[in-house]
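Please describe the entry underneath.
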Amino acid sequence: MPNDTNNCIFTGTLGRDIELKYVSNNMAIASFSIAVNSTKKVGNEWKSETDWIMVKCFGKQAESIAERAQKGTPLMVSGRLKQEKWETKDGEKKERIIVLANSVEVLLRPRKDAQGGTYDNYGGSNTRTAPDEFTDLEPF
């Protein structure tokens, strides 16, 4: 269908530092995951849930976000969903859904310090670390 749409926007927190690689034609590829938090009511209590969203971006955008963001940085990612399929060295078939980013923006979280100034809350106590399955960055 020519009118199909594949667009998504996520806001979340960078789970670990961005991995930046270069492929044979010197194209930069940044791979990272963001924690997207939500809540749902279970009985009479609200429970927090975290979904981990794998993201890739390319070229100058990849280099720029790798320089500007670190674990704990709040981000807004927009792009499209893509299913990746590959086979491991052991012959195991794998697949996952990722976001191919069109845009990645750093979101500032201003906080007041004791002197009344502001600072960014990067790497603060509310950060989470991406699970290990997001460190396997195959395929490129």
